Inverse folding.
């Protein structure tokens, strides 16, 4: 194993040597990271450890790993203020690690575990698992599909819909709300009376509409209402369950919008 040393300046700290390698490594090589760390190195680049090695219970705080490939058991290691950038962390184990203020940026996280890790201030930025953008659930410590805030709010208020969708587009507001519109159209047109699902949907639309936010109004009209306008039954139910201003918004675009409406 050959390490090549250059220099790296961390704005928060002193100037540190860089540790880089373009070579495949063996199980005995991985402890060189700790050896280099203990002599002052804080920046590691182009390292490749993908054979299931272990680095458990160590101190590696304030360290940067860039363009590295790790399939490593890091459990119980202290990575406070560390940063992983452009790394493949497939099947790595960060269980019980201290990840306070640790940043993961543009990383692949297939099979990566964070069980019982300390994740105060941990940030995942554009990290992916099997092609989907993911975030870290701060309550469970599990990876989950990244959700746009209004998408998350939808799932919280209409949990039945969260169980219907495959969550493949959770970062895309209009895609998710468009799918809800299709589900709601089918629900209304196939049942004699409004179901609990339909009632929850319109209660949520009232909640959003009451914020009087132009962007939210546009999301509701384009994402939801335009998918209902073609059905007189849907329009009747919507006008029954929407309140005040929200009903007026619905009716305005039902009459004046680009979608041919039945009412």
């Amino acid at each position: 194993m050959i390490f090549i040393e250059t220099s790296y300046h961390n704005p928060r700290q002193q100037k540190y040597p860089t540790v880089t390698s373009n070579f495949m490594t063996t199980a005995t090589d991985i402890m060189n990271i700790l050896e280099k760390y203990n002599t002052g190195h804080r920046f590691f680049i182009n390292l490749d450890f993908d054979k299931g090695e272990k680095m458990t219970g160590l101190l590696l705080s304030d360290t940067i790993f860039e363009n590295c490939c790790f399939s490593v058991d890091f459990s119980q290691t202290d990575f406070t203020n560390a940063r992983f950038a452009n790394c493949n962390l497939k099947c790595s184990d960060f269980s019980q690690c201290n990840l306070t203020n640790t940043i993961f940026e543009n990383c692949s996280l297939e099979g990566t575990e964070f069980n019982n890790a300390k994740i105060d201030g941990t940030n995942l930025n554009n990290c992916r698992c099997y092609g989907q953008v993911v975030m870290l659930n701060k309550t469970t410590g599990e990876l989950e599909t990244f959700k746009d805030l209004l998408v998350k709010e939808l799932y919280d208020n209409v949990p039945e819909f969260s169980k219907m969708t495959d969550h493949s587009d959770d970062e895309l507001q209009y895609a998710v709300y468009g799918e809800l519109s299709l589900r709601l159209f089918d629900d209304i047109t196939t049942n004699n009376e409004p179901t609990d699902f339909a009632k929850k949907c319109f209660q949520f639309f009232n909640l959003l509409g009451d914020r009087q936010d132009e962007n939210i109004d546009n999301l509701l009209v384009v994402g939801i209402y335009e998918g209902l306008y073609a059905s007189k039954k849907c329009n009747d139910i919507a006008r029954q369950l929407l309140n005040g201003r929200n009903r007026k918004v619905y009716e305005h675009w039902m009459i004046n919008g680009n979608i041919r409406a039945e009412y």
In short: The first strand starts at residue 4 and ends at 9. Residues 149-256 form one domain. The two ends are 75 Å apart (CA to CA). The longest helix spans residues 173-190.
